Structure formats: C-alpha cells, structure tokens
Amino acid sequence: MLNPQRSLSELPKMSAASQVERAVLEEEFNWLLKEEVHAVLKQLQDVLKEASRRFSMPTPGLESQLKQENFILGSSTMDQVKGVLTLQGEALTQADINLKVAKSSQVLHFQFREDKMWKLQQIQDARNHVNQALGLLGSRDESYHFKTGAEVNKLMDAVMLQLTRARNRLTTPASMTLPELATSGLMKMFTPPMPGDVMVNFYINLSKLCLTVYQLHVLPPNTTKLCQQLKDK
Asked: Which among 14, 45, 107, 121 is most buried, taking Cβ atoms within 10 Å?
C-alpha cells in the first residue's frame, strides 16, 4: 500500500528534477536553433548555389566557363530522326538534325544558325524557382536568431515549395500547340529554313532532352466535309 505522506513529500524533489531537465532541454534546443540550424541551412545554400550556377546562361566571351552537354538523338521510328543537340546552361546552342521524310527516301538536314540559340523555358523556370529558394535562405543569414522550431519549419516549407516547383517544371514536358510552334522564333532558327509542313519542338522530360518532329498533311476537301457530316449526325 502506498504511503500518502511519502508520496507528497517527494513531490518537491520530482518537481525540481523536472525543472532541471526542462531547463537542460531548453538549453539544448536553443543551441540547435542558434548553431545547428544555420549550419544545415548553409549546406543547403551551397548546394542550391551550385544548382543555380549550372542553370546559368552563357555570357558572351565566357561561354567556356559553362559545361557543354551533347545529346545524341535517337528515334523509335526506324531512325527517321538523327542528330546531335548541344545544351549549355539553359540554352540550346547548337543543333544538327537529319530528318527522313515520311513515305519518302529524302533526308533533310538542318542546323541552328550560328547567331542563334534557343532558351528552354522549362530550365529558365526551374532556375527561377531555385533562385527564389536561395533568396528565402539568404533572408535568414547567420546573424538571424530563430526563436521557435515553428519558425524554422515555416522557412523550410517555403523553400521546399520552390524546389518542388522547380522539379515539376523539369518532369512535366512543356506543351505548345501547333499554331504556337508555327509562330514561335524556333522555326526561324534553322539553316536551311525548314519547309512549311515540318515543325519541331524541344523540351525536357525528367533527365532527357527531347525533340518532337511534326510533319503536317493537308486533308482533301472531301475529308473535311465528311468529318463535318459525321459530326452533325
């Protein structure tokens, strides 16, 4: 049987021990907020700075500072498309494409004009999101004192939102309609000029640089009329 007198007499000791333990935990937590959080944020900042650097545009006269990556085009349709694309930062700086026209043995050869490069919007958007994440981290430098864990979580949620958006831009292919492609500057970048019934589009899908080729065909007038009749029925 418990002794009420003894239990009551031990309460002050237990309370004092709890207060000491709480004080130690608070001291450790404050140390984490002051020292460890900033150390981890600095590591993350360094990683994102390197990512941002890789996204950068080539600067005239300093192109050699950005790594060039060559992508050899492969086709799943009987080697109808062959060529090499050169990516530097967020821009396609060179393109050499051989295109075998459907239902013909003719092979068309196109290259980027020397004075042209094509910026990939997906990479630009991803870079912008990475830079926004860097800006959030930079707003809480080592001189800033975090007061609560919730404040750290709020910052990291905002940073992760930007990084998730950056990732999604690189994992979701950019879509352009054929009219948009026809009026885009991309069709004016090649020499010799592409024929009017051929259009191309470049985009990022995960870790791959993709080229899509469209060959347009004019439908006979009777086909259009038949489609309209079927639609009206």
From this structure: 45
Residues 99 and 204 in one domain: yes
The tens digit of pLDDT for each residue in 174-233 reads: 778 888 888 888 888 999 998 888 888 998 888 888 888 888 877 676 655 555 545 554
Place of tokens 């020397």: 114
What is the total count of domains within the chain? 2
Give the tokens for residue 58: 């080539």
Instruction: Clarify whether residues 50 and 126 are in a common domain.
Output: yes
Domain that holds residue 157: 1-55+121-172
Residue 132 tokens, joined: 């926004």
Question: What residues contact 195, with CB distance under 8 A and at least 6 apart?
Answer: 108
Strand partners, 88: 68, 91
Are 80 and 162 contained in the same domain? no
Read off the amino acid at residue 64: S
Q: What's the whole-model pTM score? A: 0.70
CB burial string 3-38: b at 16+ within 10 A, e below: eeeeeeeeeeeeeeeeeeeeeeeeeeeeeebeeebb
Q: Are residues 181 and 110 in the same domain?
A: yes
Asked whether 94 and 112 are in contact (CB, 8 A), the reply is yes
